[in-house]
Specification:
Helix content is 78%, strand content 0%. It has 13 helices and no strands. This is TetR family transcriptional regulator.
Amino acid sequence: MSKAAIRPRGAGRRSASWTQDPEGVRRSILDAARLEFVENGLSGARVDEIAARTATSKRMIYYYFGDKEGLYRAVLEEMYERIRAFERGLDLASLEPEEAMARLTGFTFDYHAENPDFVRMVMIENIHHGRHLATSDRIATLNLSGIDVIREAYGRGVASGVFRPGIEPIDIHLTISALAFYNVSNRASIRQVFGHDMGAPEALARRRESAIDTVLRMLRR
């Protein structure tokens, strides 16, 4: 049998694809890596498996990202960039303060519910004591911009007399995040302990409304 006959499927495309579409290859690697890290964590993930999910090679993954931890950090950065980009698209500055906070809370709740991979990656990073977040200036900048969005809307609410003064923007963020995050992170344990499916449509709708109400009650005079 000739060498051509036993060549792995897709191998002929690999060397050419990264030169023709390097950004597409990078995107493909990040997508495959996200699946691998979400399924197996950082410690259990294998670069060989990530390469097998893509039309590239292990060598090219190292070329783009340096090592497995560099790839993991890049996945985290991409995930934080995505949620912050959606937040910016809400255009909260054009809304009245209460409406802005309600929209941000509802969006955050929906985003977590619809993107459990994001929740899983944050949980994995907490297992590693946030050390990869600590080495990413990009993520630090992105998340500070998220606090700035809250600070602006809250400040307008205080100035107009709608919101009570003295609340730190980080505490508002933590409350919104906790209400959205827990509904996904603890879904399996709550189902087993209480027989309650937090992912059911009616449960999600009820919790979403409750989350918005909780945040607004926290802020109102």
